[in-house]
Write a structure and sequence with these properties.
By secondary structure, the chain is an alpha+beta fold. Among the domains are: about 45 residues; about 80 residues, Homing endonucleases (Endonuclease I-creI). The chain has 10 helices and 8 strands. β3 and β4 form a beta hairpin. α4 crosses α5, α4 crosses α7 and α7 crosses α8. The longest helix has 14 residues.
Length: about 250
């Protein structure tokens, strides 16, 4: 049995011009099932934009952290027999991050198993379940920076309630804490700084909007002509980031 959100997702893909075969391959749902849903006399009830997902997060603070990780380094792929795999890529250099990611998935979905898949230079923290696409409705074809990324109302409520957890996930995925230096009057001065780098304008905006809500001052630094880097360098703001996030480990 498939939940309403999964069925509506498949039908929405069809309505956008996708073929039955391609939708079946992406979702892992048989063509016969999708064809049957399409030919129903009574349409399936649609989910309201503010509705909760088919399986609400067990631990909302952990979900806020996992959402940040997913937006940075996560993806969802279909299983041939139904359900989906959630994968979060974590660099081998940060074993603490790998464990934090695994713990967050377990806290969000108590019944879903989590395992580690070693790849070159990184570990894919992976979990199989039947609700990942409705837990992360930002999933879709193509790269995240090539499509619109907007939080659902219920996701924004969680981020508003747990902004630092969300920011920690973003920084742990596509951010870092570095030590910059400069020379003044012949003396070398060092100072810490946080960066968040992402090609998606929408994801960077989610980061900066949340930083502003918690009182962190930020600026945008361009890489070449592209404004890809969110920088936090002011002493008070760095102190806030250190108190709630800190360097990866």
């Amino acid at each position: 049995m498939y939940d309403v959100a999964t069925r509506m997702h498949a039908l929405d893909l069809l309505s956008n011009g996708r073929s039955l075969n391609s939708v079946s391959k992406e979702t892992g749902i048989s063509r016969a099932a999708i064809r049957a849903w399409k030919s129903r006399l009574e349409p399936l009830p649609r989910l309201l934009p503010h509705a909760l997902p088919c399986a609400a997060p067990t631990d909302k603070a952990s979900y806020a952290y996992l959402l940040g990780l997913y937006l940075g380094d996560g993806c969802i792929s279909p299983h041939p027999r139904g359900g989906q795999y959630l994968r979060i890529a974590c660099a081998d250099a940060w074993p603490g991050l790998i464990e934090l990611c695994r713990a967050a998935i377990k806290a969000v979905r108590l019944d879903d198993k989590v395992y580690l898949l070693q790849k070159q230079g990184c570990v894919a923290v992976t979990s199989y379940g039947r609700h990942w696409t409705c837990m992360f409705p930002q999933h879709g074809p193509g790269k995240k920076h090539e499509r619109r990324i907007v939080l659902e109302a219920w996701q924004q409520e969680i981020v508003d309630a747990h902004p630092w957890e969300f920011l920690r996930g973003l920084i742990h995925s596509d951010g870092c804490r570095v030590t910059n230096w400069t020379v003044r009057n012949g003396k070398r001065y060092e100072y810490p700084r946080y960066f968040f780098t992402n090609k998606s304008n929408d994801i960077r905006r989610l980061c900066t909007d949340t930083l502003a809500k918690v009182g962190v001052e930020w600026t945008i630094l361009a890489r070449g002509s592209d404004p890809l880097n969110v920088s936090v360098a002011r002493k008070r703001s760095v102190a806030l980031m250190d108190a709630y996030i800190g360097p990866k480990y």
